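Memo to structure team: turn this sequence into structure tokens by end of day. - J.P.
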Amino acid sequence: MSINKVRKALYLMARILGDINAVRKGTVGKRIARRAAGRATGKSLGKIFK
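Reply from structure team:
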């Protein structure tokens, strides 16, 4: 098992746990908005520095 596979699994687990935590707190909408904003920012920065 490579380090990359372990890293990917840990990030996946963290994302799932964050989703569960948001459901418990009732802040799912905020989390979805932040993830969408982060994804859009990452894509635009990727295009700039490509």
